[in-house]
């Protein structure tokens, strides 16, 4: 670092460095002076410089790299769900529900009711009553408090903000749902990975994360994205037992697939838990544009959320709330949701069977997607498939650390015709064959 830093207190030193970063005098990747060196140059105690660097880290302006020093942070965008803009390739990495299976809201919208004015309750009474019955399954409180937010990501962001400070640690499943990872990073919290296996979040991983001091745990009880894993009853009981020793850690259960799920809910929220919240978004079965999620939580968490959702500024539209209620209580809509659930499961089962027939065994979990393990580098398979006309998403973006990443594709195949599904399965098998190492002494096939 070639710039001259000034300041006598931690706040003065941090403010000087921050100004230089904002003016571009320090660029992303630049290494700040070692603590001992800068302390000697400024004539201050080393702890003063340590505190200054900590202030910058909490603001997200620098990153401590251990022996690699403290570096100016760069912008590290997180991959997002959805269609890739501007591509001419057949996109099978979207994570989207089938738009033809999303119910038409027109008739229900006509019954949305009277206008709502400033100062009225933020949660529609009818939706609140229905949601309380829907959300209370296996919760410590059979009559939980209900909050409505603008989708699951909004709920997670608000839940973390009311409980944590910047740089607090949050346990995230690894691999992780992209929106949750993005929310944690943008909030300035420290993500601690917890491995996921076929039965969901692992006990050893959760225990290690709690030992690392996490103040919140985000768990997907079923249809984990991207793997499709769902908690077994035994695993859920083991996780509840571990969490019972940490009753004041905030446990967030993201049950995003809810009405579409093929497996029963097995909760990680035990009777000893003092801070908890269960989130259910309607985006998978009523459409992403509905932007509504219901949160059931303990009283203290609900009170804190209420401070961030006020009747004067930040409530969720009552038209949207009443539309949601009208749809989820309509027998024809519920039958359509059941048909959609069967469709997603059948298409995933069929495609996994097609891959298995081509020598690529693929476990089928729950959810919209398939998590396909590969015996070849996933990034190179993705590149090969692009040349064949397919846009797929490899698994790298879903892992919290490159050290934990494996070779996977996450595929969204439920909208493919039978002929397209056969073509994609053939192309994946051909790409893997071309890249798979030959036996020792042989040659690479293809």
Give structural notes.
The protein has 446 residues and is an alpha/beta fold. The protein folds into 3 domains: 63 residues, Arc Repressor Mutant, subunit A (Orthogonal Bundle); 109 residues, Aspartate Aminotransferase, domain 1; 215 residues, Aspartate Aminotransferase, domain 2 (3-Layer(aba) Sandwich), CATH 3.40.640. The strands form 4 sheets. It has an 8-stranded mixed sheet, with helices on both faces. A 3-stranded antiparallel sheet has the order 12-15-14, with helices on one face. It has a two-stranded antiparallel sheet with strand order 1-2. The protein starts with 9 loop residues before the first helix and ends in an 11-residue tail after the last helix.
Structural class per helix/strand content? alpha/beta
Number of helices: 15
Low-confidence stretches: 441-446
Which class of the largest domain in CATH terms? Alpha Beta
Q: What is the annotated CATH architecture of the largest domain? A: 3-Layer(aba) Sandwich
DSSP strand content:
5-15%
Helical residue percent band: 25-40%
Q: Identify the CATH homologous superfamily of the largest domain.
A: Type I PLP-dependent aspartate aminotransferase-like (Major domain)
Q: Kindly report how far apart the N and C termini lie.
A: 51 Å
* Widest sheet, order of strands: 4-11-10-9-8-5-6-7
* Shape designation: globular
How many structural units, i.e. domains?
3
Largest β sheet strand count, sense and barrel closure: 8 strands, mixed
SSE order, one letter for each helix or strand: HHHEEEHHEHEHEEHEHEEHEHHHEHEEEH
CATH topology of the largest domain: Aspartate Aminotransferase, domain 2
Radius of gyration, taken over Cα atoms and rounded to an integer in Å: 24 Å
Can you count the beta strands? 15
């Amino acid at each position: 670092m070639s710039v001259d830093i000034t300041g006598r207190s931690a706040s003065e030193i941090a403010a000087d460095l921050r100004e230089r970063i904002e003016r571009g005098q320090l660029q992303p990747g630049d290494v700040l002076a070692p603590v001992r060196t800068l302390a000697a140059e400024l004539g201050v105690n080393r702890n003063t410089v340590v505190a200054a660097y900590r202030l910058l880290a909490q603001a997200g302006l620098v990153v401590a790299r251990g022996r690699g020093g403290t570096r100016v942070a760069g912008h590290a965008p997180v991959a997002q769900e959805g269609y890739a803009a501007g591509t001419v390739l057949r996109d099978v990495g979207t994570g989207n529900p089938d738009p033809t299976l999303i119910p038409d809201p027109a008739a229900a919208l006509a019954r949305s009711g009277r206008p709502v004015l400033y100062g009225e309750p933020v949660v529609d009474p009818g939706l609140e009553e229905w949601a309380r019955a829907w959300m209370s399954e296996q919760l410590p409180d059979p009559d939980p408090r209900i909050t409505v937010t603008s989708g699951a990501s909004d709920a997670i962001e608000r839940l973390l903000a009311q409980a944590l400070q910047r740089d607090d640690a949050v346990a995230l499943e690894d691999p992780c749902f992209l929106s949750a990872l993005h929310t944690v990073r943008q909030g300035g919290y420290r993500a601690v990975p917890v491995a996921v296996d076929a039965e969901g979040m692992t006990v050893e991983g959760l225990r290690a994360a709690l030992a690392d001091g996490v103040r919140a745990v985000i768990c997907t009880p079923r249809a984990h994205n991207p793997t499709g894993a769902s908690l077994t009853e035994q695993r859920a009981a083991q996780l509840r037992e571990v969490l019972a020793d940490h009753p004041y850690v905030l446990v967030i259960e993201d049950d995003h697939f809810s009405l579409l799920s093929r497996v029963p809910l097995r909760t990680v929220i035990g009777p000893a838990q003092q801070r908890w919240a269960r989130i259910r978004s309607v985006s998978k079965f009523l459409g992403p544009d509905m932007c509504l999620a219901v949160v059931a939580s303990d009283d203290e968490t609900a009170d804190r959320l209420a401070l961030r959702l006020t009747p004067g500024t930040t409530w969720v539209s009552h038209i949207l709330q009443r539309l949601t209620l009208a749809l989820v209580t309509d027998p024809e809509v519920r039958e359509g949701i059941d048909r959609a659930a069967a469709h997603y499961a059948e298409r995933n089962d069929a495609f996994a069977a097609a891959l298995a027939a081509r020598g690529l065994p693929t476990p089928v979990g729950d959810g919209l997607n398939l998590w396909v393990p590969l015996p070849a580098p996933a990034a190179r398979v993705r590149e090969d498939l692009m040349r064949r006309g397919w846009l797929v998403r490899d698994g790298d973006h879903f892992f919290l650390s490159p050290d934990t990443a494996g070779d996977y594709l996450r595929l969204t195949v439920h909208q493919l015709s039978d002929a397209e599904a056969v073509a994609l399965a053939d192309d994946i098998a051909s790409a893997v064959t071309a890249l798979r190492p030959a036996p020792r002494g042989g040659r690479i096939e293809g």
